[in-house]
What does this fold into?
Amino acid sequence: MTETELLERVRSILVREFELDPGQVTSSARLVDDLDLDSIDGVTIVVRLEALLHVSITDEEIQAMTTVGDIVTALAARTDGTR
It folds into this structure.
């Protein structure tokens, strides 16, 4: 799966779960400052992505993620960008 495809999956989850405007969910969008998400929302996102993509992300990695692009980068590393 390419990073573009991963971004679309992340965007889809964010739009569906948190009723965000798809135009807001860009790679550079900050989870807290731009999308008004909190740490509980971050856990929800990761749980959905782990189940969807069959990957595992540590709590430390979740806490370090500040943008949508950070999530995509972490997923790409786990899926080798080719799944």
Notes: The longest helix spans residues 3-18.
